[in-house]
Specification:
The complex is a heterodimer of chains A (199) and B (185). In chain A, 29% of the residues are buried. Chain A has a single domain, classed as Immunoglobulin-like. Chain A has 199 residues and is mainly beta. Chain A contains 1 helix and 13 strands. Chain B has 185 residues and is mainly β. Chain B contains 2 helices and 11 strands; from the N terminus they run ααβββββββββββ. Chain B has helices spanning 2-15, 18-29, and strands spanning 41-48, 55-56, 62-70, 81-84, 88-102, 111-118, 124-128, 131-132, 138-144, 150-159, 173-184. Classes of the chains: A mainly beta (199), B mainly beta (185).
Chain lengths: 199, 185
């Protein structure tokens, strides 16, 4: 009989604790709250172009955001004999023609490296067109791997085909043909517009 | 003696619960005591930060944040900063989280903020305060202060690879939903 009462007492205690534990747990539970932030964005392709070379002074890197890459190519002193030329400048021909320089011209060239880098672009190649910003009635200008096509004020595809691999520096040349009759001290100059279009 | 022991135990058990206590009172005095207990709770509101992108539905628990057009270089949208890494670029802005508490035992303990994303976008990793979010909730801060606008940095780390080569789809609006959870400490 004594054992029975002990058992009853123990069960009551367990029952009491059993009732109290959930209540205690409820009091200690942390409060939580949720919020949602919906984020949207539209990713756009982007391209940059940069110029470099022995006789090239890059001033700015261009990009598809509207910034124009500018660079200066300085041939220095040139002559039909090809002597005393600046580093990087070579005599292509002592007697040729190119564009407006249609009779008895000597032609020099200097390398120009063009690097086009693409971001988030599926295109891997680019077409380049080039044009003179102003006509040159005396001298001939060309750009590309060969001086096959003289530049005019009308954009034309760069002579090497105009296809450049993404991120890979491409070497072309800038060509200048000057009449052998040009007076010493003449300083031919031109500005060439290059336009890169992703294919 | 045994009966007295059991009676004491029962009374002790009943004394621990208000419900049982109320029952005891109604039977002993004929009065009904109604005990009201304030429920503890939190409220979360998302706000536009003074240096961040303007949120849609600012001041609610379900806001939207539109980065706009993002590219690796060039001019970023207003209140968006672009930083470039080797093969990614990161767009960052700010938003504020405001958590209000009521009825907590010790609100000075603050709250813990965790976050996860629903779904993933190829080539884009969403970050808050530098923590890259996944579909599993991660703690961002364990020291949130109630009733204060807490600034958080939202980042989108975007691969510069082409779509189909690990990069995101371009020219199409991408959406990711961040689930924020504040838990009282």
């Amino acid at each position: 009989m004594q054992m029975q009462w002990k058992s009853i007492s123990r069960r009551l205690l367990i029952a009491s604790v059993g009732l109290l534990l959930p209540l205690a747990a409820h009091q200690a539970s942390a409060a939580t709250i949720n919020g949602t932030l919906s984020v949207t964005a539209t990713v756009q392709s982007y391209f940059t172009v940069a110029f470099s070379g022995t006789d090239v002074t890059p001033n700015a890197t261009g990009n598809s955001g509207g910034t124009t890459a500018t660079a200066a190519v300085a041939f220095g002193n040139i002559n039909a004999a090809g002597t005393g030329l600046a580093s990087g400048v070579t005599l292509v021909s002592a007697n040729t023609t190119l564009g407006s320089c249609s009779t008895s011209c000597f032609e020099v060239a200097t390398p120009l490296t063009i690097t086009v880098t693409a971001y988030n672009a599926t295109s891997t190649s680019y077409t380049i067109t080039a044009a003179l910003t102003a006509a040159d009635a005396t001298n001939g200008w060309a750009i590309g791997s060969t001086p096959a096509t003289a530049l005019t004020t009308t954009p034309g595809t760069v002579s090497n085909g105009g296809t450049f691999t993404d991120g890979t520096p491409e070497s072309v040349n800038v060509y200048l043909a000057v009449p052998v009759t040009a007076q010493a001290g003449a300083a031919p100059s031109a500005t060439i517009d290059l336009v890169f279009t992703a294919e | 003696m045994r009966i007295r022991t059991v009676r004491h135990l029962v009374i002790l058990a009943l004394a621990f619960t208000g419900a049982f206590s109320a029952l005891a009172q109604t039977t002993s005095s004929g009065t009904l005591n109604v005990v009201l207990t304030n429920g503890s709770g939190l409220q979360m509101l998302l706000y536009t930060d003074s240096s961040g992108v303007t949120l849609g539905n600012s001041g609610t628990a379900a806001a939207t944040l539109a980065f706009g057009s993002l590219s690796a270089h060039g001019t970023p949208p207003t209140n968006v900063t672009i930083t470039n890494q080797t093969s990614t670029f990161t767009a960052t802005t700010y938003f504020d989280v405001y958590v209000q508490e009521s009825g907590l035992d010790d609100p000075n303990n603050g709250y813990t903020l965790s976050a996860s994303v629903t779904g993933t976008i190829t080539g884009v990793t969403i970050q808050i305060d530098g923590t890259s979010l996944t579909t599993t909730a991660q703690n961002l801060s364990g020291t949130g202060t109630y009733a204060t606008d807490v600034r958080h940095t939202l980042g989108a780390v975007i691969s510069t690879a082409a779509s189909g080569s690990g990069g995101p789809t371009t020219g199409t609006q991408l959406t990711s939903t961040i689930n924020l959870v504040a838990t009282s400490n």
